[in-house]
Amino acid sequence: MSRMSFTRAAIPALVAILMASAAPVSAQEFVITWGEDNATSVTYDPRVTQSRHEEQVIVNVFDPLVGADENGKLHPWLATSWSVAPDNTSVTLKLREDVKFHDGTPFNAEAVKFTLDTIADPKTGSQGAVDMLGPYAGTDILGPYEVRVRYKRPFAGGLSSFTENELSPVSPTAVQKLGNTGFGQAPVGTGPFRFVSWEKGRELTLERNPDYNWAPGFSTIKGPSKVSKIVIRFIPNAATRVAALEAGEIQISDTTPPLDTKRLSDSGKFKAFVGLAAGLPYGYKLNSSKGPFAEKAVREAFFLSVDRPKLAQNLFFGLAKPAWGPLSPSSPGYWTGVESFYPASRDRANKVLDEAGWKPGAGGIREKNGKPLQVYLPCMIEIDTCTAVQAEAKRAGIDVKVESVLKQKQDELIFANDYDILPIQWVNNSAAVLDIPFTSRNIPEPGKFKFNWARWADPALDKVLADAGSAASPDDAKALYTQAQKMIMEAAIFMPMHDQVQTVVHSSKIKGLRYAVGQWQVRFYEAEPAN
Known about the structure:
Layout: H1 11-21, E1 31-36, H2 52-61, E2 66-68, E3 74-76, E4 79-84, E5 90-95, H3 109-120, H4 129-132, E6 136-143, E7 146-151, H5 158-161, H6 172-185, E8 193-199, E9 203-208, E10 229-234, H7 238-247, E11 252-253, H8 258-267, E12 270-276, E13 279-286, H9 296-305, H10 308-316, H11 346-355, E14 359-360, E15 366-368, E16 371-372, E17 374-379, H12 383-394, E18 399-404, H13 407-416, E19 421-427, H14 435-438, H15 459-469, H16 474-491, E20 494-498, E21 501-507, E22 510-511, E23 514-515, E24 522-523, E25 528-529
Parallel strand pairs: 1-10, 1-11, 17-18
Antiparallel strand pairs: 2-3, 4-5, 5-7, 6-7, 8-9, 9-10, 11-21, 12-21, 13-19, 13-20, 14-15, 15-16, 22-25, 23-24
């Protein structure tokens, strides 16, 4: 499938539609309109979501307990100070005493305990935060503004987990009033912007929190933001999004195509900044529980058949580099040894398949015992990359059936174990992210949405990851995470494709935009007019 095209003749009509839907604002307001690349948001409850699109709103509506700048350095935020138990079984946090949620509810130790307890409660249906919370045992209230968070076993990533959006405190009053589902439709946090309205599939509006006076330690400003309103327009089509940016209907374009990123930034009217996301790079989980990928030889041949450097260059024009392992190079604990695994070689791929009994058949597709070497790839993200991989693999005799799907269909396939390959990426600022897609306890099953989509159950890997999470020192943890990366690559269950990059292009009339830790979501708090 080729890239979706967009003709010049269509631009005026589409821009006219966008202009007709724009709400007028006074000249005194500093309004930012963000063009969001996904229109399928379901919830803005940080305790529930695992979607980077939903987190773009969450990062501006909620505050984490511990701040982290773009480089991962820790700073005070809702917690003013902290201490970690020598055995890593608890973290004690002292909290700010001057913070209120948007609904007037005081932020205090009770709110922290409520948030963490409800994340751990299966009734909440947490998809991301429950993993980041780790082996949570409970929260002790030591005073009105002091808590001790306890773990069932040593958890070296406990402190850094509180920098994640998903563990941001929520208003207990709002949750109890609205229920979990209702709260996700009208979120209430402590952040610099508060929720106003949401017309699903069209736009969402936030407004400045006039009482905000608890910016993180790394912030260059204090007090309320200079941005009076944020309008988030849901514009999934990239060409439409770029056209809206050039017409002035939006001031920022999310996930701008690489070629447009270069063209627009070269024009002088726009500026581009690229975030290299930490965590799991964009890649493919290979289902080891059934079908052709139950054979390690087939998984290895699939790796060898795909020229990742070539695809990264062709698809991203140098903005994204090829990935080689289960952590991105910007992630703490990245092991350079992954770069020696599975260099592209069609000759080697053919040899591996020959030795495994897969012989060339009709149309060049390999066969074994009368069955073609065919695998199913439902693709929810980066359809262009999926189809490029399809073309590469076919040259080695592997028939990859690609279907573009939405999240609901993908989730149904995951629960039913009805897939062979799934694309995945995960933004996280710790090597502990490896727990989420690779431990056996995270193999999905009906009613249990988890992220070990390779369905890989290896007690040895489970132990290494558990030991890394409870390591006595950072050096011990790094050594264990290095071992885990080696085991994952040797098993050939995750084929990394390229670094996750966020290509944002914005009007040159705006300055002060910053990426949140992890380098994907954009913080609007410090934004201001450039002239």
